[in-house]
Amino acid sequence: MRARREFVGWALAALLAWMVVYPLAIVGVGGVQDESGLTTRWIRAFLDRPNEWSALWGSLWISLASVALAALIGVPLAFLFTRVEFPGRRFLGAVVALPAVLPPLVGAVAFLFLFGETGFLAHVAQWATRSDAPPWRFQGAPAILLIHAYTMYVYFYLFVRAGLAQLDGSMLEAAASLGAGRRRTLVRVVLPLLRPALLGAALLVFLSSLASFSAPYIFGGSFRVMSTQIVRTRLNGDDRLAMVETAVLSLVALAALWWARRLEGRAATGGAKGAAPRRASVTRPGARAAITALAWLVAGLSLLPHATLLLVSFVPRGTWTTQALPPEYTLQNYVSLVTDPTRLRPLLTSGWMAAVATLAAVAIGLVFGLAVVRWRVRGATLLQWLVALPWAVPGTVFAVALATAFSVNRPWALRFLLVGTPIILPLAYLIRNLPIAGRAILAGYQSLDPSYEQAAASLGAGAWRRLRRVVLPLLRPAIVAGGTLAFVAALGDFMTSVLLYTYDTRPISLEIMGSLWQSDVGVSAAYGMVLMVVSAAVFLLTAEREEPR
Amino acid sequence: MSDDRYLVLDGLERRFGDVTAVDGVSLALRRGEVLALLGPSGSGKTTLLRMLAGFEQPDRGRVVLEGEDITRRPPEQRRFGMVFQHYALFPHLSVGDNVAFGLESLRFPRAEVARRVPEALALVDLAGYERRRVGELSGGQQQRVALARALAYEPRVLLLDEPLSNLDPALRERTRRELQDLIHRIGITTVLVTHEQDEAFDLGERVALLRAGRLEQVGDPAALYAAPATPFVASFIGRASRVPTTVVPAAPGVVRARVGAAWWDVPLPAGRSVPTHGPAVLYVRPEAVRLVVPGGGDVEGTVEGRRFAGALSTFLVRLDDGTTIEVQAPFILAVPGDRVALRPSRRAHGGLYLFAADE
Question: Among the four residues A35, A216, A325, A545, which has the most C-beta atoms within 10 Å?
Answer without folding.
Answer: A216
